[in-house]
Amino acid sequence: MGPMASVGRRRSHPRSLPSRLVVLSLGVVVLPALSACAGKASAEGPHHVSVQVRIHYSAFEPGQLTFTRGTTVTFVIHNTDPIDHEFIVGDQAVQDFIENTAHPAHDGSVQGQISIPAGQTRETTYTFRKVTTFDGELQFACHLAGHYAYGMHGPITVTA
Amino acid sequence: MRRRLLLGGVVTALVLTVGAGPALACGGLVSPNGTIALVRTTTLAAYHDGVEHYVTGFQFVGGGAEFGSIVPLPAVPTKVIRGGNWTLQRLELEVNPVLRDARVLAVGAVPATESAIVLQRKQIDSLDITILKGGGYAVGTWAKDHGFALTPDAPAMLDFYAKRSPIFMAVQFNARRAAARGEQIGDAIPVHLVIPTDRPWVPLRILALGAKPSDPIEADVFLLTDRSPSMLPVPSGDFAPGPVASGLTLERSRAASTGLLADLRSDRGMKWLPTSGMWLSYLRLDAKASDLSYDLALDTSPSGTPSRVDAGLTSPGSRDSAPSALVPVGAGAALLALMLVTRLRRSGPKVPA
User: Fold this and answer.
1) What is the pLDDT of residues B156-201, one digit of tens each?
2) Nearest to A82 among B18, B141, B351 (CB)
3) Model ipTM value
4) Which of B54, B136, B226, B323 is close enough to B193 for a disulfide, judged by CB 3.0 to 4.6 Å?
């Protein structure tokens, strides 16, 4: 089973696209990924999908994501900005720790944590094992100085 | 992208850099630990006989580290020289007496993915100045590669200006050279650019770069023209129709005194200034960063129609990019001179990147 269309009720970034556009971008970005992953299903299993994420003007597109429990997702993150960014998946504790501690670049050795140099594309894989129980329990974010406060974070919903 | 004459520089230098790692050539003016802070940026732009004279000065506090800034320019400067020593201060005195103690190069649109082109390099005192031509991505990449740590709002901001004018001035402060020269932290270093332009605009939005939405943005803007200019958006105190410039107030609008003009002419590089017949406008900017979504477009021609594009109200090429029909100014002399001084006082912390 692949990721569900991530239709959010709120914007995760004050400068991100309105939710309707987010839905549209999901149609453009995620759905092709779903198609692609359908082809991969036999090799990787039905719970392994690929999702394209674009970073532009220090904002994630799409701005929020929804998956079903047990899905392993390979995020392919395209940084179109001339500055570096990060893509960190985790709960609030993970986000707070990385936000508040000095840390080196994320080399991908930790699931769901990757640094994306300016103008580059990087991948990281994460398995969503638990259903989220409240909005914002799980997030994806960038923690380079000032980026989270600027709005570079979005919620991930995991359903049963 | 359309480019006419550049307003002289009109731009106020903005600091894009922050603390950098040891491998970076240039650290940040606003470093993560707050040891360096930009306290003021002063800019003068003047236009006469198709040539813009642009003077900007940087004054910083803190010590030890290096800083850098990037200034969007309306066109390509033909000269980059050291500015005069008292021009900016004399203009401030004019409105605050109690304090008395190349011809235009083709600058067409640049593909976003191409590298920035270095048009000119110059050292002035402890400043390393580079004039760049390129899209927002290209200039951002150049800045990053040269040690500028751009704030997260920089990509959008650079694109915003590059779509209007792909010319930027990158300024890097070399602390080591400053120490060798005996320069003191707090000293202002004036830079004088000679820039042709026929359409003046003052980039105000960039003053909010790196600021939090609630941060106050303060600047003094001086205009010296041969007639009262039409402005867009319209500052309070002006009575022209058009969208209002939130936080911008026209404090003074009157004929420039011959004494002021004589004083300015006596400074280095200021002989081009007419001896009389100039109009002085003084505008005070006091806005929250989140409200500073505009630039200030000027028109001193008889038509008095500042460009919505130059005001940052409309994207270049859009249907709404035609000049705004504001109240025409009266006929006047052919001579046009524009002088602008912006003084930036940022009391709020910048967001480090």
Assistant:
1) 999 999 999 999 888 888 878 888 888 776 677 888 887 787 777 8
2) B141
3) 0.71
4) B54
Span B26-52, pLDDT tens digits: 222 333 233 334 444 566 665 656 656
**The model's pTM:** 0.72
- Taking residue B30's Cβ as centre, other Cβ atoms within 10 Å add up to 26
A1 and chain B in contact, CB less than 8 A: no
Does any CB of chain B come closer than 8 Å to the CB of residue A144? yes
pLDDT tens digit at each of 160 positions of chain A: 333 333 222 233 333 333 333 333 333 334 333 333 333 333 344 589 999 999 999 999 999 999 999 999 999 999 999 999 999 999 999 999 999 988 788 998 999 999 999 999 999 999 999 999 998 899 999 999 999 999 999 999 999 9
A59 to chain B, closest Cα gap in Å: 9
- In chain A, which residue's Cα lies nearest the Cα of B16? A83
Do residue B152 and residue A144 have CB atoms under 8 angstroms apart? yes
Least Cα separation, residue A124 to chain B (angstroms): 22
